[in-house]
Amino acid sequence: MLNVKNIQSITDFTRNTHDHVKRLQGSGEPEVLTINGKAAVVVQDAVAYQRLLDLVDYIDTVRTLRERLDTFKKDKHGRPMRTVIEELASQAGVDLNPK
What we know:
3 strands, elongated
């Protein structure tokens, strides 16, 4: 969620870019930049942006798994997970029951 304390004018951002970037990198929080008092863009440092992308990927994966599980429950298509794991392990030459 955007912090309303991190709202700056694009003019100030342009004039003091180094200070803004330093703050963005230190806090990991995005800033809202305004033009004529209206929100125009959001900026954040690269590490925070990558974390956001990773989170989106995770959410997409969970959503896909949930949809597939719902489809399986509804249509009863598929195979038991244990069977699939055993087949994959066998193909990869992995012993699931080491002595």
